[in-house]
Amino acid sequence: MNLTVGSHSIYLSDGNKIPLIGLGTYSDPYKTPKGTAYESVKCAINFGYRHFDGALVYFNEHEIGQAICEKIADGTVKREEIFYCGKLWNTFHPPELVRPALEKTLKTLQFDYVDLYIIELPLAFKPGDTFYPRDENGKYIYHKADLCATWEALEACKDAGLTKSIGVSNFNRRQLEMILNKPGLKHKPVSNQVECHPYFTQPKLLEYCRQNNIVIVGYSPLGTSRDASWVNLKCPPLLEDPLLVSIGKKHGKSAAQVVLRFNVQRGVVVIPKSFNQKRIKEDFEIFDFSLTEDEMKAIEGLNKNIRFVELLMVRGARWPGGAVGWTGSCSSVGLRFESRLGCLAMDWRPVLGVSPPPPALHPVLPGRLRFPVTPYGTSGFESVCVCVCVCVCVCDLGLPWLTSGQPCTCRSFFS
Ligand code: NAP
Hints:
Elements: E1 9-11, E2 17-19, E3 23-24, H1 36-47, E4 51-53, H2 61-73, E5 83-88, H3 95-109, E6 114-119, E7 124-125, E8 142-143, H4 147-159, E9 163-169, H5 173-180, E10 191-195, H6 203-211, E11 215-219, H7 242-251, H8 255-265, E12 269-270, H9 277-284, H10 293-300, E13 324-326, E14 330-332, E15 335-336, E16 343-345, H11 349-352, E17 364-373, E18 381-394, E19 407-414
The site of NADP nicotinamide-adenine-dinucleotide phosphate has 28 residues, from α9.
């Protein structure tokens, strides 16, 4: 297959097409200045990207939608040239919540449809607007999910024209089989988005998916941002691997371009994230070289079967009190303010010097406190908060001394 900048899409089993490279858009919302996703998406479109991987839980779909809509309005692209993948979050698995969740994404994006809508994880959290619900012991509150019922609700969204294609993410073979063997299956999952790169090549899942005409979309294809709050840092930095660097040198390419080309060349879609103009461009420049068979084999040989993304929430709440995934509002120096996202990505280590902090550092307050939480100032919801700890978080106060992207020390309440 001759892949070029202008022609690098492959067919999905439902007849739609997916570009082999897309821009990943997850970036720690508390460390990422407002407008970064917007600027990055516009710049990516200028460089030739047509595929964008997003999610409600990334809390930046409004910026991505705005960027795409503006590039459509100024005539750079047509909507049908854009491929947007959205994700159903864990709290919206009950069938009756699926369409409203997708409609929320569509409204935020200002789109009539997404190109692909996928179940982000095969596990469900307690339904509701608290994205990371936890009990009083800080354990995630799971919900008995019927994946097949959730899937049927996705099928209905496709039939209603709200999404062109439907798929899954983080599904293993057994979970895929549950869907594929479902009596009365109307639409097969067209794709499975999973971690995939030379240190985690997924040979078995890849083979199973190939047999079943399911495209693998490889997330964290560059080995992640190595954010210690959710990445397994025992795994060495992928892009420093001597073999990848030396293969890159032979081709006049970077290790990043080599790992992206590696996956693309074996039919795995890649969604590298970059919010840096130079690297956005670099990551897309993978269609002017190819890897030899020997190089492909040598890169496959790097597989360590190690995940960078540990998906801690799947293994149960290992971090007391909600170090990650807290949904609540913050209170800083006596001010109450709306946190932009709740506490999806709070970082308290600079203050406490340990991670995670021992439970004694966040004693349960007497009584329960209620704080309104209004992500992005749109549809608000409330969170019942029971704990308090001193932490560092990045707030979105709109105050000069606490602007988005600036760390501030504050007392933060988490549910
Ligand atoms: P990634 O794409 O493997 O790596 C992103 C990191 O690499 C960022 O720190 C980025 O920094 C840096 N980078 C980008 N281009 C580079 C280059 N050419 N050279 C050196 N460094 C470079 O990691 P990821 O964000 O974990 O995964 C990508 C996307 O997959 C996400 O954004 C998200 O859309 C999706 N994802 C999905 C799931 C899921 O459960 N379905 C899980 C994880 C991720 P700069 O931004 O500064 O360039």
